[in-house]
Write a structure and sequence with these properties.
The complex is a heterodimer. Chain A folds into two domains: about 100 residues; about 325 residues, no CATH class. Helices cover about 60% and strands about 15% of the residues of chain A. In chain A, the strands form four sheets. In chain A, strands 3-4-5-6 form a four-stranded antiparallel β-sheet, with helices on one face. Chain A has a three-stranded antiparallel β-sheet with strand order 7-8-9. In chain A, helix 2 runs parallel beside helix 6, helix 3 runs antiparallel to helix 8 and helix 4 runs antiparallel to helix 5. Chain B is of the alpha+beta class. Chain B is about 50% helix and about 10% strand. In chain B, helix 1 packs antiparallel against helix 10. Classes of the chains: A alpha+beta, B alpha+beta.
């Protein structure tokens, strides 16, 4: 009789634990990083002569359903996708400053500037046209400067972003290290590590969006993290990163704080930022500098061979700003007297007042300038560059994100909570509990009958 | 396959978001009227569109310039017409003086008339439009023609050359001109800018076998003098000495044939003289050989040589060297008027009568300039139309690249809306399907 009550009690216990697990699953249905849990039970028995008598049931484990291999694949896709996202965000920001809907961009500025020189050729005496030459030149210079500023401000924002992201990485590494410590303790004390593993997986997921990351998990549930073979987390030991800013070469690097070993990050948000800062943006900058240098040199070559209206002094049209080697400015002599703009070729057989030099400057628009492009063509290539990059990135982002969605779906298949499933489990455990309770009731009746005989 | 609520929700959100993004893009296309506004929309189309926009901008610039050039040419034409009218009046005055009563009162009246007409002509020569003085050459800050208060002679203060305007990718037209070309019937601006280094060699007037002054069309065989001397020969050599003392190699040779005209000879020699920067012309019955490099120590013309290497030094056609800068410039408009005024003062009727032809020639000379302007205007009209046409074509092409096709976009938008609504309906229904409903 006693056994009967014990068996019944174990059945009610298991049903109750089952309901607890189910309710925990349902409660966490929307919790990020939560992997559903299942009760693992085992029947109890004793040997009675040649028979095995059942002694009820017991809970051996509350198992977490998680596919770590799938998780690793997700981490990899996270790296690729956030790399692409950062790049496309940056290029999208650049694009808005490179091209405007009004169309008053570098291409139209350069052609307007050169065309005005063409007008000056036909009327070198006109002060109105000379004034327009200066204002067109100023607008061209403004456009150059704005482009420069938008690239360099991106670079400095990126440097700041990298700095703060490295801080986030260090924080996450420390968090995971302390989770590792807790997991080890729980493991030794034979307590459930499920909740800790959930938190750990969530942290690693976040970290994987930032940089290259390889995850090595031991049987206790602790993880070691490496970046391209360089250990950043071993058990509870964290090797923190820091941002090495090489001011002389304007290059940023991430290094281990201890030992200073360089960590070559080439994916994830950090990888994207570093590549943008060290490679992509300098390329745009140098293209822009080549372009403005060409303008300066070619216009000045012609301009210094001509003379203005006042005197025979040969003047350059553009000059470099003393404080900023990439910044063009207009010769101060020209700004203070527009008659100093040289339109006239003093060596021509055409006597004074001719517009030969102005025409030659205007004709620069037909000259192959850089890489076989005419000035306007080069300007169009240049201002389209961020958009072209962005366009290519966008289709890649789409591809990677649908791959990631697929993997997340697969992960959901394993770890996700299905409400219907949990509710049916609930009914199952409820009925188990009711069944056991019914038997308890019968057993009690049996006791009462027995007692009444005795009584 | 286990499908959790999360899976359904994620899928729903993903597709709804894609749908919304597409609707947003389509709405933008419709609202802005452009399907390509930035390079990332379609880099190739964007670049193509920007190139087209640049070409359209060029057409606009050319069209503006053509407009400006036409205005200038209109002013020029009007001034030239005024000059012609002035000349006609001068001619009729001179004619009146020749045929009139020959009393000093009428000579004086006509003289005063001519003086005032001269001033009017000067003001026509100083015509100006917004770009400056039309007959001032390559830029002139002040009136290019002025009358000397003492001598009454008209001088040119402008500059040589002309200002030109690029009205097409490979065509420039002159919007101003050196007024000397209008003023003088046979003006040579090269000479004017280098008078000291410029010399010419000239033959006496050639006569044909009728004893008349030869023209370019006179047949070579009827050129009395040449024919006599060249009897029995079939070619004519021009003997010149280059500045370094050598002779041109090969020798300058003209093989003449029967029925050849003087012009044939001139053009045959010119082909060979051109590389030496020497020109041979036939003006008023005389052969000119002129060159900038004929300075004191420069090139010299020794004469025609027969094929027996004998230079014809006597009679005709021997060349004589003219003084430095002495090249026939034809008739000068203001000099002729001054001369007429002098002749009126001295009441020299014969001289005046000789001048009537001069004015006649001047009128036809200026009229030629008007005709030239007419031709240029025609050319500009043609170009203007060409630019307009290519602008229309370029705009159409540009529109094809970047403008929204409304029919297409609106129907796409409707399709997307239907998809969006269906997704919403179906998902709402699916979310309601849960075991909870049945418990």
């Amino acid at each position: 009789m006693r056994t009967l009550l014990e068996i019944t009690k174990s059945g009610m216990d298991v049903a109750q634990r089952g309901l607890e697990t189910t309710s925990n699953n349902i409660a966490n249905v929307n919790t990020e990083g939560y992997a559903r849990q299942r009760l693992v039970t085992n029947s109890l028995f004793s040997r009675n002569g040649q028979f095995f008598d059942g002694l009820g049931v017991r809970v051996t484990d509350v198992q977490q359903l998680r596919d770590f291999r799938l998780n690793n694949l997700i981490y990899e896709k996270n790296q690729e996708l956030s790399f692409l996202n950062v790049k496309s965000n940056t290029y999208s920001q650049l694009e808005t400053s490179f091209t405007t809907e009004s169309g008053n961009d570098l291409d139209s500025r350069i052609s307007t500037f050169l065309n005005t020189f063409g007008d000056l050729a036909a009327n070198p005496a006109s002060l109105d046209i000379r004034r327009k030459v200066v204002s067109d030149a100023e607008q061209l210079i403004d456009t150059f400067n704005n482009l420069h500023t938008s690239i360099s401000s991106q670079k400095s924002m990126i440097a700041e972003d990298v700095e703060s992201l490295v801080g986030v990485v260090n924080q996450q590494l420390n968090d995971i290290a302390s989770l590792n410590a807790q997991i080890k303790q729980s493991y030794v004390n034979k307590r459930s590590t499920n909740g800790l593993i959930d938190q750990q997986a969530l942290k690693i997921n976040e970290l994987s969006k930032l940089m290259n990351l390889d995850v090595h998990r031991n049987e206790e549930g602790q993880v070691d993290l490496t970046i391209k073979g360089i250990s950043v987390l071993a058990g509870t030991k964290v090797h923190e990163l820091y941002l090495a800013n090489d001011t002389s070469s304007d290059v940023i690097n991430v290094r281990l704080r201890q030992g200073g070993q360089g960590v070559d990050l080439d994916t994830g948000e950090l990888g994207a930022f570093i590549e943008l800062h060290n490679t992509d943006l300098p390329k745009l900058e140098s293209d822009l500098n080549d372009f403005s240098t060409q303008i300066l040199e070619r216009v000045n070559n012609l301009h210094t061979s001509g003379v203005g209206r006042n005197d025979d002094i040969r003047r350059s049209f553009f000059e470099l700003d003393g404080t900023n080697p990439n910044k063009l400015i207009i010769n101060q002599d020209i700004l203070s007297d527009i008659r100093n703009i040289a339109a006239e070729d003093p060596n021509s057989s055409n006597a004074s007042g001719n517009g030969i030099i102005a025409q030659q400057i205007a004709d620069l628009k037909e000259v192959e300038f850089l890489k076989g492009y005419k000035p306007t063509e080069f300007a169009i290539q240049f201002i389209s560059e961020p958009g072209t990059r962005l366009h290519a990135l966008e289709s890649n982002v789409e591809l990677r994100s649908s791959e990631l969605d697929l993997l997340k779906n697969q992960d959901q298949q394993v770890s996700g909570v299905n409400m219907d499933e949990e509710l049916s489990k609930m009914i199952q455990y409820q009925q188990g509990y009711q069944g056991a309770a019914k038997i308890m009731q019968s057993a009690q009746l049996m006791y009462q009958s027995l007692m009444s005989i005795l009584g | 396959m286990r499908i959790t609520q999360q899976t359904i929700f994620d899928g729903f959100m993903k597709h709804i978001n894609e749908n919304r993004a597409e609707m947003h893009d389509l709405q933008q296309d419709i609202a802005s009227g452009k399907k390509i506004t930035k390079a990332s929309d379609d880099p190739l189309k964007f670049k193509k569109a920007r190139l087209l926009e640049n070409q359209i901008r060029e057409q606009d610039v050319y069209q503006d310039r053509i407009g400006a050039a036409k205005n200038t040419l209109d002013v020029a034409e009007q001034s030239l017409q005024e000059i012609v009218n002035g000349l006609i009046e001068i001619k009729s005055n001179v004619t009146r003086a020749v045929n009139g009563t020959h009393d000093s009162a009428s000579f004086t009246a006509i003289k005063q008339e001519l003086e005032s007409l001269k001033e009017e002509l000067v003001s026509s020569f100083n015509a100006k439009d917004i770009n400056g003085y039309i007959f001032g050459g390559a830029g002139s800050d002040s009136s290019p023609f002025s009358i000397d208060a003492n001598t009454g002679s008209v001088t040119f203060n402008g500059s040589n050359g002309a200002l030109s305007l690029k009205v097409d990718s490979n065509l420039s037209i002159d919007v101003t001109q050196d007024g000397n070309f209008v003023r003088t019937t046979n003006y040579d601006d090269d000479l004017a800018s280098n008078p000291s280094s410029y010399r010419s060699y000239i033959t006496p007037t050639l006569l044909d076998d009728q004893g008349n002054t030869a023209t370019g069309d006179t047949a070579f065989t009827s050129l009395e003098a040449v024919d006599n001397y060249l009897e029995g020969f079939d070619n004519l050599e021009l003997d010149i000495t280059l500045p370094d003392g050598s002779s041109p190699n090969p020798t300058l040779m003209y093989n003449y044939a029967n029925n050849d005209t003087v012009n044939d000879m001139i053009s045959a020699f010119n082909t060979q003289l051109d590389p030496l920067d020497v020109t041979m012309t036939f003006e008023n019955g005389t052969v000119f050989v002129k060159s900038k490099s004929m300075g004191p120590n420069g090139l010299s013309v020794n004469g025609f040589v027969d094929n027996g290497s004998n230079v014809f030094t006597t009679n005709f056609p021997a060349f004589t060297q003219q003084a430095s800068g002495e090249v026939d410039q034809g008739i000068d408009l203001f000099d002729s008027i001054d001369e007429a005024i002098v002749n009126l003062e001295s009441q020299n009727v014969d001289a005046l009568s000789g001048q009537i032809d001069q004015f006649e020639e001047l009128i036809s000379h200026v009229t030629t300039h008007i005709t030239e302007i007419g031709l240029t205007n025609n050319r500009l009209n043609f170009l203007e139309e060409k630019h307009e046409n290519s602008k229309i074509l370029l705009n159409a092409e540009l529109s094809g690249w970047v403008d929204t096709d409304y029919a297409e976009t609106v129907s796409k938008l409707q399709r997307t809306e239907i998809a969006f609504q269906s997704a919403m309906t179906i998902h709402t229904k699916m979310f309601n399907q849960s075991l909870i409903e049945y418990l």
